[in-house]
Amino acid sequence: MHPTQEFDDALPPAARSLIARAADFAGSVVAPQARQWEDQRRFPREAVQAACAQGLASVEVPAAHGGLGLPFGAKLRMVEEIGRHDFGFAFSLVNQHNAASRIADHGSAQAVARFVPALLAGELIGCTGMTEPGGGSDFAASATMARRAPGGWVLEGAKRWIVNAAQADVFLTFAQTEPGSRDRGIACFIVTADQPGFRREPPLAVAGIHASGTGGYRLQDCFVPDALMLYPPGQAFKAAMSSINKARAHIPAMCAGMIDTALARALARGARREAFGQPLLGHQGLRWSLADVATTLEALRLLTYRAASLIDRGLDAQQAAAMAKKFAGEQTLPAIAACIQAMGAEGLLDEHGLGRHLAAAKVMGFTDGTTEIMNERIGRLLQERARHAPDAPA
């Protein structure tokens, strides 16, 4: 059985219905416009709102707060279907979802009422501000500061490389409350674009993912009331780290979607185009090249679906998620490049979208932890395993 079919069959019927809606939306809305979004370097706010209307930003949000209350595996498959056509838009949508989900799960009653319905409807665009101009992977070294003030907190600092920041209205902002305390002092605050002290930075021109609306913002004497603290010090860092496995699983799912599209384009071209008296697929070299891509895709899906399954069962998914992300970071770009090579110059045409996928494949090697960070994570888990394992036989 195909790994995707096997994975989907294990999901509840409502999840399979969501995946079908996502596939239809991706084909009818994302596919026809993705090239235009990239060419115009435009964040497609109206498409995010249309996706929200289909329930695509409410997958894991509890039903009590207006969401679908579905497992993580459903969201992972949703972004795989959308990622087939545009990684940037899939990335934007999953960040919209996560902003709503975090507030629904951990926000005050005031924050939930004010933001969750509007985020689920797409009336507000949300994002999460972790990365800064001077740092990325060392999250505990955040330079954005929050100091206590009567009735709340005053924030100072800057965030950069934030998906959706180009047009977001709601910014879940992580900041340090106690200089030098690293993870112990990190807290998270809900900041809005219309409040004093907030300044949006211009969008970043990142090839291949302009639909993600990646950008940044600055905060100066930006007051946030206590009711809009999402995670207090001592909980924010743990909350961010507990969600990282999900982030490291949905990225390779989007990569699987891109590889699947590239392989389908290459196979269609190879079956149709003839050279030296036979279809291109009749030539062993090209056939073997695409066999390698198909094998890579199968392996990527198995790694990714295993991580999602562990997450949904509440089991330790650190290593599985890191391995899926590492494999995607190392294999997606050469797999897409091989498909373009198999198509010849035809593969470079914008109408196929493979150049956009190729650029996105490089971008994903930096998002939610670089490949080097994945190696470090896996290596530390192996080191821990060695410390607790009996001595190997001589």
Please tally the helical runs, counting DSSP H or I stretches of 4 or more residues.
11
Q: How does the major sheet shape up? A: 4 strands, mixed
- Shape, per Cα inertia axes: globular
Rg measurement, Å = 22 Å
Mean of residue pLDDT values: 93
Low-confidence blocks of residues: none
The tally of domains stands at 3
> Which percent range describes the beta-strand content?
5-15%
Any overview of this molecule?
The chain is α+β, with helices and mostly antiparallel strands. The protein folds into 3 domains: 3-124, Orthogonal Bundle (Butyryl-Coa Dehydrogenase, subunit A, domain 1); 128-236, Beta Barrel (Butyryl-CoA Dehydrogenase, subunit A, domain 2), CATH 2.40.110; 243-384, Butyryl-CoA Dehydrogenase, subunit A, domain 3. Helices cover 53% and strands 14% of the residues. The chain has 11 helices and 10 strands. It has helices spanning 3-9, 13-39, 45-53, 72-83, 87-106, 109-121, 236-272, 284-312, 318-343, 354-363, 371-388, and strands at 126-129, 145-149, 152-162, 170-176, 186-192, 198-200, 215-225, 229-231, 274-275, 278-279. A 4-stranded mixed beta sheet has the order 1-4-5-8. Strands 2-3-7-6 form a 4-stranded antiparallel beta sheet, with no helix packed on it. It has a two-stranded antiparallel ribbon with strand order 9-10. The protein is globular and about 80 Å long. The model has no long low-confidence stretch (mean pLDDT 93).
